[in-house]
What we know:
The structure holds two protein chains of two kinds. By secondary structure, chain A is of the alpha/beta class.
Amino acid sequence: MIAFGILIALKGVALFISHEVSRVGFVSALQLTGKNHMPQPPIYDVCVIGSGAAGGVIAKELCESGAKLIMLEAGREVPLNKFLSHKWPYELPYRGFRGEKQAPFYQGGVSSSIRYEDCDSVSVDRIRVVGGRTVHWNAVVLRCAERDFKGWSVDGIEEDWPLTYDELAPYYERIEQMIGVCGQDDGLEIVPAGKHYLPPLPWRCSEHILHRATKHMGIPLISVRKAVVTMLYDGRPPCHYCGHCMSGCDVGALFNSAVAMLPKAQRTSNFTLRQSALVREILVDREGLARGVSFVDTQTKQEQEVKAKIVVVCCATVESARLLLNSRSPQHPNGLANSNGVVGRYLHGHLGGGADIYLRELEGVPPFNQDGATDHVYIPRYNHLAGKKDYAGGWGFQVNFSSYMFPNHALRLHGYGAAYKERVRKMQPGYLMLGAFGKTEARAENRVSVDSHHVDEYGIPIPIVHYRFSENDLALWHDKNRSLMEICSNLKGEVFADFGGAPGGFASHEVGTIRMGKNPKTSALNSFCQAREVKNLFVTDGSCFTSSSEKNPTLTIMALSLRAADYIKEQRRKGGL
Amino acid sequence: MKRRTAIKIVALSAVASGFDAVGANRFPSSAGMGWSASDYKLRFFTAQESELLDQLMEMIIPSDNHSPGARAAQVNLFADLMVATSSVAIQKQWREGLKQMQEEAAKSSLADALAKSAAQDGHPTTDLEHFFAALKRMTVNGYYTSAIGIHQDLQYQGNTYLTTFPGCPSPKVHDHGGSGATLDDAQGRALPQNPCTASKNLPRAAGSEPRSKWWAK
Lengths: 577, 217
């Protein structure tokens, strides 16, 4: 009976995906088909740029409130049945070494249309596909703690956010329920918990062994909180534990904006998705308010315009800053909403560096399936528990988010021949991986700029990234490495650390380039993600962050987007926008 | 057909009506790649170079009682494709590296030449040592992504669809401090295969069937 129920439900979600998402495309095509007479182009209530974590929330919420909304996405949809997640390496031309599994999501040469100048070892992850980066991610969703919003008050660096944990907590709660989060409340202040978690992921042997070590050291280790449904939830089938979150989930158990959000917007009939629409600039009226956008259709190369009363920018940190900086006008000669020169500045993200460990306890056991849902446990920040440090901030460890299929140690073990081959095989079941995500400091000198000399194939200036780690970042990085090696010393096995000589970033977690803040001189947005200088312009992706803790940013991006959506709804009701 | 497999097929066939995205079909399946087929034509290496590569790679990951090695997995053909699609500078390094290896081998034997090149594994300084590093990396990358490396040697059990995750099936490593799965979850469950690959009769070594009670031995 239960099985039958699942069958029906699964069938339901599959049909839902195929109809709803594909209709999304057809509607947008119809919308732009002209008739014999010259119709007035529609003026949308809202134009959302970007379809990822932030854009999905805005679209769903505002469409459900009755707003006529158009979403512009530079990429195209990749239907779930075209995902290459389950392909074996030998079914791929280069065995997956050239990113073939994820390549369908990185459309139009997006990865190469960027420059790095005066940079430490950082790279930015930009994508073009319906769903944005939620199409493939490890989906660790952590709330920021009260102290994470108070950099200045607690640590004396950066600035306090213009809102507190308590103000954001109800939105965290709502968004967690909306996206489906597995995990549990561990009662830790540093990772505030929600009230509505789905069952946590069972721990692997290596995670039990790790827990034994960390418990001994007084370091907490908890079940990960992850936007993966471990049971049928909201029409989404449960996780099937294939370990392919980072290649995309072919059933939608992993939260994906294109599967879990956009169909809800579509169902209201207020929603239009325009794919292959790369926005060139945001257009303004005589008063300097946003009146719409101009975009280039990447398929036909045609330039088009969309008119809207409100524009919400959700293109992710680097692209959003690029867009505002490229939106110059006599009213905004410095780029849109940028008279104080803050837009593009305060770029930061996470620093990384972890270790692969091969546990002796599991060496030589017959291989067993450990894929799971990538991360199953998480080590939250702990360096604050032992008193104040001479640097600000901390790090958390994500555990086991790398694939179990490839024996990474084979590249690190010395030697060759029969004994080497046997050693590789025997060690593989003991694989345990710790990956750090450490805070970096938000600093004005780290930034995204544009330059008319460097343009993409459509003539749009590309982003140029300037980034240096700060002294605080380096101090934190060194202490993190020391602490990681201490954890490893409490584990019996072979350890391969991957620190190198210097930190690297941003682990896809770049934020901060169009920051919110209390101080109008050092921020562009108020706490509702609304541009101070352009009241009908909102930026709700990671660029709105005032500062970053060690937590993965996506849950906070979605909670802030939800709060901004509520604010927009209220302002629309009042006639303020 | 297992129940879960049936469910998956229903789900997948229903999803399949979504329209095609640009780029999603850019990559051909293995059928067109000829990894293990005899029709692969060398694109960069000469026949002699490829044969030398094959000998060296088989020495790095040899066939043994447990599983076939790099030769059976045709890792030299993988290397050919990877090098053929690399920069001219990298191609030059491979050509010169093989030549140098050949010259070393002429002094005594290929085994001695390989041993010499591997003397500083992990900390290469000479050209020959750098070549070994590239050669070993290519061998590892090619072998452990081949069907032989994945299924016969490592006996990898994943990339499949499970109804529940077994967690840790060993009672010995439980520390009673976490939220781990219970032992009952993992006992000897026959797991359905990925419907996308189930029909392919993947090669498996004798005795490579999953054993769920490995802790009991």
